[in-house]
Amino acid sequence: MYTYGPLAARDPDLEVLLTDGLGGFALSSVAGVPTRCYSGLVVSAQPPVQRRTHFVSPLETLGVAGREVTLHALEIAPGVFEGRGLELLTGAAVWDLLPEREQLFAGVRVRRRVFMPPGSGAAVFLYDVQSREPVTLRLGGLFVNRDMHHVHARVPELQFSAGGREVTVRGPDGGPDSSGNGRAAGGPVTRATLHAPGAVIDALSPQPHPQRVYYRHDAARGEPDHEVTLGSDLWEVNFPAGGGRAALVVQGLTPATAAHTVTDPWAAYAQEAARRSELARRAQDTSGVRDELVATLAVAADAYLVRRERPAGVTVIAGYPWFADWGRDSMIALTGLTLLTGRHAEARDLLGTFLASLRRGLTPNNFHDDGGGAGFNTVDGALWLAVALERYVSVTGDLGFARSSLPALRELLDWHLRGTDHGIRADDRDGLLLAGEPGVQLTWMDVKVGGWVVTPRHGKPVEVQGLWLAALGAEARLSDALGERPQYVGALARARESFPAFWQGGAYADTLAADGTPDRSVRPNVALALALPDTPTTPAQVDRVIREVESQLLTPVGVHTLSPLDDRYRGNYGGTQVQRDAAYHQGTVWPWPLTAFVELLLSRGEVRRARAALAGLTGHVWEAGVGHVSEVFAGDSLRPGGCPFQAWSTAELLRAHVLVSLAEAQAARPAPAPTPAGPRPLSTQNLT
C-alpha cells in the first residue's frame, strides 16, 4: 500500500490508471478529478486500438441531517472547481495500484474504491458509508460517448433510457463522430448499474444537463482544453443509521464486453485484489528479488499487456493514455513485462503476434488505429524481436518454440542481408547494416513533423549495429541449443570486425553515414549498443562511454537524448505538439535507455554507482503516473512529460532494478571460481 495525505491527494499531477486487458482503461487523478480528455472510462472496440470515452466522472452528493454536499470535484476553469470533493479529502491510498479515496463531512465518512474487472470494459466505483444517523447518497455521472482523442465542443447528443437500477446512455446511431472525421458506428452505448444491498433505492428520472469541464493537462500540451459533457443524477440511495455500501458500475458496451455482467461488485473486487497480489508474488519469486518495488512494477506491467483481435494474440500498449501497440516498444518491454514477472505464456504469445506479422523481414512499427494494417517504418523493431526471442528461450528453456521460430528469424536475417524496405540492407563493403531514405524515420528517435524528420540518423546508427550483431548472434546460439548448424557465422564475424570503425578520436560516433562520415553527436545510443551481448569493445572504451554519459547525459530520472553542450539541444519539453516533437529527441530525458547505462556500470563492477543511478526513478514511481514510470522528462526542469504511464519505461526500470539487486546479492557472497571467456550460453540469467 502507498498512502497520500490530504494535500498530496489533491495534486492533479498524481494520476491513477486501471485497465481491462482489452485495451480499455479508466484514468483520473488520485482524488478523482478529470484532468485531460482521456480521463474517465475508455473502452476498446475491436481491435483495442479503436477506443471511445464513454464516461468522464461520477456525480456524487451526500445528504445528512438536511444538509447536502458534493463529493466529486470538477475543474471548470483554471483553478476553479465545481463540487467540494477536494476540500473534504482526508487522504488517499493505492493497494496494489487499486485506488481508494476517503472523505469526511458532518461526521459521515465515505470511502470510495475503483477497479476494472478484467475483460469487462467496466469501471466499478465502490462506496462505503459510515454514519451514526441515516444518510443519502445521490449518484449519477457525466457522459460523453466519443472518440477518446477528441472533445465535445457542443452539448453531446445522448439519449438516456431509465430502467430502475439500470440506465443506458446511447450516442447518436450512426451520427457524426466528435472528431469530425467520420461517423460513429452502431451508436455507442454506455450502461450504468447500481447495487446497494440493504439500502432503499429511489430511481430518479434522468434530467440531463450540460456540464463544462476543463482539462489542465491538455491545456499544458496546447490541445483543446474544454469539453461540454452531459450529466444527470440517476439514483438516490438511502442508508439507515450506521451506513452501508453501494456500487456504481459503468460499462461501455462493445462486441467484446456486452456479454460481461458484473453481478457482485464486491466479490469482483476481491477477485481483482487477489489477482494483483498474485502478480506481485509471482514476480518476486521469478526475479528472486522480493521487495516492494518489484511487486509494484509487476502489477503496473499488467496494464500494458492486452489481447488483440487482429492479428489475434497478445500485444503491448506502448503508453497510456494515447498510444496503441507498437512493435519496437513491445520487444524492448517484453523482458520486464513478462519474463521477470513470470508471465511466460504471455511472452510466448506476444512473440508469436509479431513473428506472425513480419513483412519482408520487418516487424510492424505500429498497428493502424482502424485495425486495417500496420506501418513498417522501423529498422530496429525486428532486431529487438530477435533479442527478445533469445531472452525468452534463455529464461524458459522453451526449445520447442525456438525450433518453430528459427525459420522466421532466419528469413528476417536473410531480408536484412539482401535488402528490404527503406534502404535497410547489409553493406557489401563491411557487413554493417545500412538504413534510411529521405522523409522516413527508422530508429527509435523517430519524430517526423510534416515532412521534417527531426533526427534522421540515416546510414549506420550505432545501436542498430549492436542490434544487428545481437540478432545474428541469437541465431547462432539458438541453433547451437537446437543442435543445428548456425547459418550466419560469417556475417556475424564480418560485422564484428567492422564495428570498431565507430571508435574515432577516442570516442564512439553515434552514426556513420553511408560514406563513413561520423556523426559525433553525444547521445545514449552508444550505451545501448555496448550493453548488447555481441558488440565488440574493450574495458577502456566502456569506461570512456561511462564517463561521457555521466558528464553529459545522465540525470536523476534518465538520460538526455542529446548533450546539453550541443547547440541543437532543446531543454524545454512543452508547448504545442510541434514544439514538443522538436525537443523529443534533442535533449529531452528518457528513462528506458538508463538501463543500458546501468548494465555498463555492472559490467565494470560498479554496483553502488548503478544503484545510485536508479534512485531518482525509484522515487518517481509515486510522483506522476502512480506505480508507473513516465515516458519522458523535460531536459532542463526534469518535469515529467508525455504519457504518464509508459510500457518500456516501467519495464526497463524493473529490469534494471532486478539486475542491480542480483548484483548486490552476488557481491555479498564469496566470489565464485573464474569461468572461461567466450560467448554467453543460454541461461535463465541472460536478461541483458
Automatic annotation (TrEMBL):
Residues 300-655 form the Glycogen debranching enzyme C-terminal domain. It comes from the Bacteria. InterPro entries: 6-hairpin_glycosidase_sf, 6hp_glycosidase-like_sf, AGL/Gdb1, GDE_C, Glycogen_debranch_N. Residues 15-242 form the Glycogen debranching enzyme bacterial and archaeal type N-terminal domain. This is Glycogen debranching protein. It holds the Pfam family GDE_N. Signal peptide: none annotated. Gene3D superfamilies: 1.50.10.10. Residues 163-190, 668-688 are annotated as: Disordered. SUPFAM superfamilies: Six-hairpin glycosidases. It comes from Deinococcus caeni. The lineage of its organism: Bacteria, Thermotogati, Deinococcota, Deinococci, Deinococcales.
